[in-house]
Every structure is written in structure tokens, then in C-alpha cells.
Write a structure and sequence with these properties.
Elements lengths: L2 H4 L3 H4 L2 H22 L8 H13 L3 H19 L2 H20 L9 H22 L6 H10 L5 H20 L1 H23 L4 E7 L3 H11 L4 E9 L8 E12 H14 L4 E7 L16
Helix pairs in contact: 3-6, 3-7, 4-5, 4-9, 5-6, 5-8, 7-10, 8-9, 9-10, 11-12
Amino acid sequence: MNLNKQEVDWKAVFDPMSIFYIVAGVFCAAISLEVFMLPNKFLDGGVTGIAIIANLHYGINLNVLLVVINIPFLYLGWKKIGKTFAVQSTFSVFLLVAVLEFLNIGPITKDFVLAAVFGGILMGLGIGLIIRGGGLIDGFEVITEFVQKNSPLSASEITVFLNSLIMFAAAAFFGIEPAMYSILTYFTAIKMTDYVVEGFEEYTALTIISREEDKVKELIVKDFGKAISVYKGERGYLPETFHIKHPCDIIMTVVTRLEVHRMKDAIQKIDPKAFFYVQTIKEVKGGVIKRVGKKHS
């Protein structure tokens, strides 16, 4: 049983860091809307994009739209994803509406490129912080998660398809040029959101198979100050000598991008025939990751 779906974790809801992330994210998103996007008729994707179209074209109050359009998605999140998530998302949406109601900041630039880029940066920063806090301000993310489970399409394909429809609507209502700037805003926001949620520093899982396995372990742990995981495996199975195999330790460690080359060079000095493969990973938690190792000469 998934308890997260069955009951609200009020400790998580009232966690100070979660609240901080959500509040900071909401203010960033609100400033993006007020200063850069709405004055220039630029859109973001999802519910925000739909709300902006209806607000600018039909004159319907933006805050009412953000609440009304998000309600079915929040209900779906409550039923299908988790009640804690739904509570935090509801708080995020209503806080955004409250901030927009009282925030009164005019545009600070008439340059469309600057408005699109910085509007996207602030919106992406806001969305990313809110996600880190456990909530959302755009219910489209919920329907993407739900549809993906019942569709052969990936989440990214569904997101691109739905948001493409919104951008086509923007082109129809406001013209091609605002729609093109909206696309720039949207993709800037996506990239910024990825950076905030996943981190600017990518990590690399470095896996090594070597005849000098003990020396390699000692090098990584003692000289570089890194933790390792060791799997028991076999090496050999070459095309010319397929029947020949040897038991070996498969050594895996997690390093930053800046450390990969230095570590590989050091290992190759021990075993020039060592076999490596690397995998990019987005997030790590626990273990010895941040420690700066000694400089190996």
C-alpha cells in the first residue's frame, strides 16, 4: 500500500524548507508573469498558458482562471498521485493567485528577447523551486503523469504535444511573432526548471574493471577520497578466447564531471588496460560525494 496516496503527511506539508521553496518559487513565477510575460503577451506552457490566452483574448480574470483550470488537475493529483502532493500544490496555486492579486510591478524592458529570456528564467526558477518544495502550480504536469501510464507515448512527448497546441492557439490569437517569443520563453523555463530540480552539477558513475583491482580501490578511496561499490563479476569472454574467463571485482564510484578525467588518468597509470564506462546521473544523495580528494600526481 502506498501510504502517500492514502493520507496527508502534515509533517512534510509544514516542513520549513518545503514552505520556503514554495513561497520563493511562487514569488519568482509571479514576477515573471507581471513583469515580462503578460505585458508582452508571452505564454508559458500548460495551465498558465491557457489562462493567459483566455485572460488576454477574452478579458477573463487571470487569477480566477488559474484556480478554475487547475481544480480538476489538483483533484486528479489527489486521487492518482498523492494527497500530500495535492495539498502542497493547492497551497502553491492559491498563494500564486494571492501574490498576483497584490503584486503591482510594471514591465522593466521593451526588448522582446530580454523579456522572453528573463521571463523564462524566472518562471523556470519558480516552477523548479515549487517542485523542490513538493508542489506544482501547473496541473498539466499531473495529466501528463496520468496519461503516460495509459499511453504508449512518453511524458516528454505528451508534454510537447499538449503545449504545441497552446502555442498554435497563441499564434492564432496574438500572431506568429508573440508565439515565437512564447516558445523561447517556454524552452528557457524548461531548462531552468531542470537545473533547479536536478542541479547544475551533473555527476558521473564511473565503472572500472581492472586486473589491478586492489590498487584501483585503494587509489579511489585513499587518494581521491571517494566511496566505492564493488560487484562480483567475471572478465574475459574475448572473441578469440571466449572460453577463458576470470573472476573480478567490478568497481563503481560517483564523481563530478571535473574529476572524471583526472581519475581515469590515475587509474591508467596503475593498469593501462583497465576498462571504463561512464554514465551521467542527475542526482545523488548520501555517501561521500562532495569531498574534495587529494591531488594525485
